[in-house]
Design goal:
The complex is a heterodimer of chains A (212) and B (244). With 212 residues, chain A is α+β, with helices and mostly antiparallel strands. Chain A is 30% helix and 33% strand. Chain A is built from four helices and twelve strands. Chain A has helices at residues 60-81, 87-99, 144-156, 170-184, and strands spanning 13-19, 22-28, 31-33, 36-39, 45-47, 52-58, 108-115, 121-126, 132-135, 137-141, 191-198, 201-208. A five-stranded antiparallel β-sheet of chain A has the order 10-1-2-11-12, covered by helices on one side. Chain A has a five-stranded antiparallel β-sheet with strand order 5-6-7-8-9. In chain A, α3 packs antiparallel against α4. Chain A is globular, with a radius of gyration of 17 Å. Chain B is of the alpha+beta class. In chain B, strands 8-1-2-9-10 form a five-stranded antiparallel β-sheet. A five-stranded antiparallel β-sheet of chain B has the order 3-4-5-6-7. Classes of the chains: A alpha+beta (212), B alpha+beta (244). Chain A binds chain B through residues 68-69, 72, 75-76, 79, and chain B through 65, 89, 93-94, 96-97. Chain A: It holds the Pfam family Proteasome. Chain A: It comes from Stentor coeruleus. Chain A: One of its GO terms (cellular component) is nucleus.
């Protein structure tokens, strides 16, 4: 007899790229359970403040609960401080929230992204128990390895012999990454929801992916 | 009020069927500075006259946001008021977390009154020393509530509590029947006029000593900026000069 397993990976990929004062966040819209698709239209990204977003892959129920909890903590912060928390403050808040469940973790792999107090776009990547680091770009989820290989190649110039620096549109890069991931990862597909966040505003768009 | 032999604690009745400690708590509200609440069909407004402990001090805040659809102000022991504010914020947030929707303002006010009632029936506790005015929005529109240390709450078209509130009440009684269809700006003018009518002549009315907040069907709870308040105040004093 097998014991009840509280954890279930619902698949999917999230990606974020920071450039200057801008950050681009993308998450696919597929939820899976094994070989079955549960939804083709699910949003994995939640806006926490006017300048910060959290993108989560892993188990959907844990992700939903975590997002709800963070929204409540942000509301409390706003009541107590009279202004929104900075990205920096939220990065620590997410860390301690995840670690508070160290012995029954949220099965969530998070990217916290946005524009910080200093006007710079930033990405913070987390593991399930709260370890985090500031990144220039990040990916989490079933397509993490495929995404990071492409992002390293394009943003850093790894695995290429020419001298190269990235100087094109990060939204285009995120679309290319998802197209590549959807080709080979069965859990990633259907649509990508993309947020282009900068001090000038937030531009949201949808992008079609293969549905197989 | 004169001292009475049955007023030592909350759990002793007087022969006339009164609980004096609660009545004394209600007196504390009359020592606090003015709060005014009023509503139309679309908006509810709170306005307060703030006090500063001395000329060197900042005016003390009495008007707080509870949630995007609920606001609170209080007269009396400000420390009790702030704790009540914290409690209401927590309850509203917990409701939103669990139910995904905004809490009904009357339910929230009822929770506060239930908490207040406990403090009137224990020998070891004292009643709250504040009366609160709460404005809130539900599917039927805006509402104005008053809570008091006797653990009751009432709903109003318009209300004033605190020091010299009778002048404000008289002004509101004269005018409340016209409030239903007023615009936001007209309603704000009535609120500020009500505050003005209770303020003594030596009290300085400016954007910091007067606070105003509004909630409405299309307006989440927000404070008026001190510039907006000063504009309304100067508009009123110009109008009064013309009348004279």
């Amino acid at each position: 007899m097998s014991r009840f397993n509280p954890y279930n990976d619902n698949g999917g990929t999230v990606v974020a790229v920071a450039q200057g004062s801008r950050v681009v966040i993308g998450g696919d819209t597929r939820i899976s359970n094994g070989y079955n698709i549960l939804s083709r239209n699910y949003n994995k990204v939640t806006q926490l403040t006017s300048t910060t977003f959290i993108a989560t892959s892993g188990q959907v129920t844990d992700a939903q609960t975590l997002h709800k909890l963070l929204l409540a903590k942000v509301a409390l912060y706003k009541h107590q401080h009279g202004n929104e928390p900075s990205l920096r403050a939220l990065s620590k808040l997410l860390c301690v929230t995840l670690y508070s469940r160290r012995f029954f973790p949220y099965y969530t792999f998070n990217l916290l992204c946005g524009v910080d107090d200093d006007g710079q776009g930033k990405v913070f990547g987390y593991d399930a128990i709260g370890s985090f680091d500031e990144l220039k770009y990040g990916a989490q989820g079933s397509g993490q390895q495929l995404s990071m290989s492409i992002l390293d190649n394009q943003m850093k110039g790894t695995n290429r012999t020419d001298s190269y620096s990235f100087n094109s549109d990060p939204v285009g890069l995120v679309k290319d990454v998802f197209n590549a991931v959807a080709e080979r990862d069965i859990y990633t597909g259907d649509h990508v929801l993309i947020w282009d966040v900068s001090p000038q505003g937030i531009n949201q768009s949808t992008f079609r992916l293969r549905s197989d | 009020m004169l001292k009475s032999p049955y007023d030592t604690d909350c759990i002793t009745w007087s022969p006339q069927g009164r609980l004096f400690q609660i009545e004394y708590a209600m007196e504390a509200i009359k020592q606090g500075s003015l709060c005014v609440g009023l509503k139309s069909n679309d908006y509810a407004i709170l306005a307060t006259l703030n006090r500063a402990p001395s000329k060197l001090a900042e005016y003390q805040q009495k008007l707080y946001e509870i949630d995007e659809h609920i606001g609170l102000c209080f007269s009396g022991l400000t420390a009790d008021g702030r704790l009540i504010c914290k409690y209401l914020r927590t309850e509203a947030l917990n409701y939103k977390y669990t139910h995904g929707t905004n809490i009904n303002p009357q339910r929230l006010v009822g929770k506060l009154s239930d908490k207040a009632q406990i403090k009137t029936q224990r020998h070891s506790k004292r009643p709250y020393g504040v009366g609160c005015l709460v404005i809130g929005l539900d599917e039927n529109g805006p509402h104005v509530y008053e809570t008091s240390p006797d653990a009751n709450f009432y709903e109003y078209y318009a209300v004033a509590i605190g020091a010299r509130c009778q002048s404000a009440k008289t002004y509101l009684e004269k005018n409340y029947e016209t409030f239903s269809n007023l615009s936001k700006d007209e309603l704000i003018i009535h609120a500020v006029k009500a505050v003005k009518s209770s303020a003594q002549s030596d009290v300085e009315l400016n954007g910091r000593s007067v606070s105003v907040a509004i909630v409405g069907r299309d307006t989440p709870f927000k404070f008026l900026t001190s510039d907006e308040i000063e504009a309304t105040l100067s508009q009123l004093s110009q109008a009064m000069e013309v009348e004279v």
